[in-house]
Amino acid sequence: MDFHPYGWVTDPWELIGDPSNSRTLAQLCKVGGASKRTVERLFQEDVGMSFGRWRQQLRLMHALRFLGEGAKVTHAALEAGYSTPSAFISMFRKTLGTTPTLYFGTAAKTVDAPRCTLACILFKI
Q1: Which of 12, 71, 100, 109 would disulfide-bridge 75, Cβ 3.0–4.6 Å?
Q2: pLDDT digits (tens, 9 = 90+) for 44-82
Q3: What is the largest CA-CA distance in the chain?
Q4: Sequence ranges of the chain with CATH classification 1.10.10.60
Q5: How far apart (Å, rounded) are the C-alpha atoms in residues 119 and 49?
Q6: Which CATH code for domain 52-123?
Q7: How many Å apart are CA 81 and CA 114, to the nearest integer?
Q8: Neighbour-count burial for 78-106, b at 16+ CB within 10 Å, e otherwise
């Protein structure tokens, strides 16, 4: 078995391919035999944010891809791993200041308006 700094049997980047994976950090640590606190510390040092915040942003970006392709909010929310569409909409509003429907409706109407990219909003660039 190869050494992984987080001690996980499964690499955390595996979650990028399946953001709906609902295993908690504690469950991932248990599988890999690592302390949750150690993994939290290492993740913060390596990525610059908590595992929970990283997972939330991963799920948001995954959902945005679906919404950008014309998917319904419910489909995008469930595919991204949210338990309900309302939980997704609440997080979306908290993060981006509007609902998914208004966000994409406004984007379609303001083609000429400069917009901050998702990375700009999420990473405060």
Answers
A1: 71
A2: 888 899 988 988 988 999 999 999 998 999 999 999 999
A3: 53
A4: 52-123
A5: 14
A6: 1.10.10.60
A7: 30
A8: bbbbbeebeebbebbeeebeeebeebbee
